[in-house]
Amino acid sequence: MTPDIAPIAWTGDSLRLIDQTLLPARLEYRDVADVDDLVDAIKRLVVRGAPALGVAGALGVVVALRQADRESWDATTRDAAIARIREARPTAVNLAAGVDRVRPLVDEGADAVLAEALAFLDEDVRGNRAIGRHGAAWLTARTGDRPLRLLTHCNAGALATAGWGTALGVVRELHARDRVETVYADETRPLLQGSRLTAWELEQMGVPYYVQPDGAAAGTILGGHVDAAIVGADRVAANGDTANKVGTLAVALACAAAGIPFLVAAPWSTVDLATPDGARIPIEQRAPAEILANGGTPVAPPGARAHNPAFDVTPARLVTALITETGVLEPARGRTPAEEAAEKRER
Ligand code: MRU
């Protein structure tokens, strides 16, 4: 399956990433063939978004195995390198899950790991298309056939996945059905994934959109300009609490106050049944310079301290629907991913 935008590919020798730090000014690819480069790319958000991190983690193990061969690493050095990839960012469970998925094959060699990692990539794209269909059907059942005004936060598009997107995958599907009037894309401070990446994707799709400051979202929602908000997730706890880009919680609270649906679109690989609730989700704290400076120029007084969490947690009671590749569950009505998983195992 060929996705429209392929942020992650395997070239035969190395991992090829769209450098998301350069968008929308330049669409450039970066080939990654060693572990230091990959860890740097993950930390600097060259590759980002939970599902994309999962696939990059799985293919990253191939990078580590090839480098181990080239540089004659022993097993301890190899395993330490794989662990560095796994831990490069803490919040999106997909990164660790992607590495863990292929790790049992490490002793079989790079080709076996590569085959599994590419299967994972393909599954992600197929899963996202299913998320798009389930999300579009759920919204249509509740809102009828009129074109919708949607709001999204951060970037949960093709760039954040192996292709197609989760929250933007639903928008893509609705747009194909002529059901999108407009999308409000929160700019997503401080790294601007909304104004740089989501706007770029919406532009390519031909979907009408506004970029708005994050602080405008509550007013746009309570002002009656939005029919539903839809976002991605970095980790969904067993009880349905959901971590996503900082600012998502404010969107969810505004949706609850306005009585409109707040939807989370994410593959099952983002559900972490080992994390019971949102309080146990590790939240990445990022460098103070991201908010104390703007484009390299300091904007706060010298000595200002920074509080710069990259994510926040939306309690399950505010999540109207969690859309996965297998269907929709409604955490706000008390249905948890843990219950859903238990029933799936029985089926
Ligand atoms: O810091 P980022 O850009 O990796 O954060 C990404 C998000 O918060 C996304 O909304 C989330 O990973 C879902 S992507 C389908």
UniProtKB/TrEMBL annotation:
Q: Which reaction does it catalyse?
A: 5-(methylsulfanyl)-alpha-D-ribose 1-phosphate = 5-(methylsulfanyl)-D-ribulose 1-phosphate
Q: Which UniProt keywords apply?
A: Amino-acid biosynthesis, Isomerase, Methionine biosynthesis
Cite the residue spans of the region called Disordered.
329-347
Question: Where substrate is bound, by residue?
Answer: R48, G49, A50, R89, Q193, N244, K245
Site entry (Transition state stabilizer), positions: C154
InterPro entries noted in UniProt: IF-2B-related (IPR000649), IF-M1Pi (IPR005251), IF_2B-like_C (IPR042529), Initiation_fac_2B_a/b/d (IPR011559), M1Pi_N (IPR027363), NagB/RpiA_transferase-like (IPR037171)
Its signal peptide is none
Q: What is its EC number?
A: 5.3.1.23
Q: Could you tell me where the Basic and acidic residues compositional bias lies?
A: 332-347
- Which Pfam family, an example, fits this chain? IF-2B
GO terms for MF: S-methyl-5-thioribose-1-phosphate isomerase activity
Identify the catalytic residues: D234
Q: What's any GO biological process attached to this entry?
A: L-methionine salvage from methylthioadenosine
Q: In which pathway does it act?
A: Amino-acid biosynthesis; L-methionine biosynthesis via salvage pathway; L-methionine from S-methyl-5-thio-alpha-D-ribose 1-phosphate: step 1/6
Please tell me which top-level EC class this enzyme sits in: isomerase
| HAMAP family, sorted | Salvage_MtnA
What's this chain's function?
Catalyzes the interconversion of methylthioribose-1-phosphate (MTR-1-P) into methylthioribulose-1-phosphate (MTRu-1-P).
Q: Which NCBIfam families match?
A: eIF-2B_rel (TIGR00524), PRK05720.1 (NF004326), salvage_mtnA (TIGR00512)
Q: Which family does it belong to?
A: Belongs to the EIF-2B alpha/beta/delta subunits family. MtnA subfamily.
Supply the name of the protein: Methylthioribose-1-phosphate isomerase
Origin species, per record, is: Actinomadura logoneensis
